[in-house]
Amino acid sequence: MKRYVLDAHALMAYAEGEEGAKKVADIFKKALDGGAEIFLCVVNWGEMYYIALREGGTERAESFKNTYAKYPMTIIEANKELTLQAARYKAFHKISYADAFAAALTKLRKAELVTGDKEFKQLEGEIKILWI
User: Fold this and answer.
1) Cβ distance 45 to 78 under 8 Å?
2) Phi then psi for 110, rounded to 5 degrees?
3) Structural contact between residues 109 and 89, judged by C-beta atoms closer than 8 angstroms
4) Alpha carbons 44 and 5: distance in angstroms, whole number
5) CA 32, CA 124: separation in Å to the nearest integer?
């Protein structure tokens, strides 16, 4: 079964109908049909929330949170193993700490990261990336 990790960029692109939204929609459909698993790190879930809150206020942030709660994805808590892998990525690559968690989850779940964030370009040799 195909495994995907979504980052905040993918979630926001889908929610706002931006470039890449169709690819994310196809992944959700694949998961609904039982052909894929979707994971989201709780840190990136929080990142999506604060971006929506900052850009559109509480109502928008809550709407995104409540809508995504109905989608076929598993939110993964940041345990020690995940946090240490994220710290390794952050220590040696110029990426945000939240992005380091998405990369770490991708590596640990042997998944493919779904993103349009060019910050991940430097990790292409270490994790699989589906560019949207």
Assistant:
1) no
2) 50, 55
3) no
4) 10
5) 28
- Assign 21 a pLDDT band (cuts: 50, 70, 90): very high
Query: Across residues 21-34, what is the average pLDDT?
Result: 97
Do 73 and 40 contact (CB within 8 A), yes or no? yes
β-partners of residue 38 are 4
User: Distance (Å, rounded) from C-alpha 4 to C-alpha 105?
Assistant: 10
Q: What is the pLDDT of residues 46-84, one digit of tens each?
A: 999 999 999 999 999 999 999 999 999 999 999 999 999
Tell me which residue of 41, 108, 50, 122 sits closest to 75, measured CA to CA: 41
Let me know the angle formed at the C-alpha of 97 by 43 and 27, rounded to the nearest 5 degrees. Answer: 50
CATH numbers and ranges of domains, the chain: 2-131 (3.40.50.1010)
What one-letter code names the amino acid at 62? E
In whole angstroms, what is the distance from residue 121 CA to residue 107 CA? 15
Q: How is residue 123 annotated by DSSP?
A: G
